[in-house]
Design goal:
Blueprint: H1 2-15, H2 33-42, E1 60-67, E2 70-79
Helix pairs in contact: 1-2
Length: about 80
């Protein structure tokens, strides 16, 4: 639960209009598997299910787009 709260706060921080550091830029986020799954879920992938149901392999890439406070999962579980 603590990790879910931290990931949610992180995404909310990226979406706020007063966050001039990330606004209009690409931000690389490197996580462990669980945090990556939670991030994808909070971004809209499998919102009603359990985050562990989201496939996210070791060395996988997920791509999330945030525009106008809307978060969209574009790519998940792309293997390197």
């Amino acid at each position: 639960n603590d990790l879910s709260v931290r990931v949610t706060e992180f995404l909310d921080d990226l979406k706020t209009s007063d966050n001039i550091t990330a606004m209009g830029k690409t931000v690389l986020v490197v996580t462990h598997k669980t945090a990556g799954r939670i991030l994808l879920q909070k971004a809209g992938h499998n919102p009603e299910g359990h985050f562990r149901e989201i496939p996210f392999d070791n060395a996988a890439i997920g791509y999330v787009s945030i525009k106008s406070n809307k978060t969209i999962v574009i790519l998940d579980n792309k293997r390197c």
